[in-house]
Amino acid sequence: MNGEVNLVVAHPLEAKELIEWFELGEVEPRGKYRCYENKKGIALVISGMGVRNAVNAVDWLHGRQSPGFRAWLNVGIAGHPSAAVGQGLLINRIEHRRSGDCFWPPIPDLGLQGCGLVTVDEPETTYEQDAAFDMEAAGFFAQAAGLTTTDLVYVFKIVSDNRENPVDEVNLQRVPELLRNLESAIRKLVDHLRERSAAIADWYGMPAEFESLLRRHRFSATRKAALAQYCRRFCALGMQGRLSEIARVRFRDAASLMTAMRLELASASESGKTSRQGAE
Q: Which range marks the domain in which residue 247 is found?
């Protein structure tokens, strides 16, 4: 079983090779963002440059997908003071220069060179820190990590500029070539993430009632996530039978269903608390 992976890139030239490798077709009609996907669980969205665009694109792609344990991978170019142009870097620390926020992506044992990264609002020209520099990773990671487990959120950057080859001399038409030279590394990351997301999805598998309820009512992205959480809670409390009963009830809308589920879980939690107190 292979899991699902969402790829996020800032520029169409960063997407070109990925679309070809994974046989992705553009989703029609076009929405706010250009999006591509295949039937094997891989999707790609082109966010545009900057932290806010990365946040919005992740949220948009998540909103058009059913809830689940998908992996997220940001692939793109970055500057670095001394690393050679074309070097691939698996990011293990992200600092958002403007806010000061820091994030620590996971470090899988895949034989890829690790590196810290600073997300900036404008292209870096002084390369003062010994780190990679980009304009999206902090927003991407913060948003994606809030939608799944952080074990499924990776950032991979390809060095496009350094002190000897400054950013204002970068030829963007070379970007597809830079990615082509790292095809094996990127495929290795995607395969690893598919395996990890499949394993986690299997461990936290959703009951059949979840899909049934999704088909019956219209849910916002926020309510989809809450529904998934409620269904898992019913199962964790040994209330699978009660969940099945609720799934057969005809509720007026998604809000009414969610209220009923919330009250049922609250009642079960209160009963459990009373039972424990009685035993003490």
A: 208-270
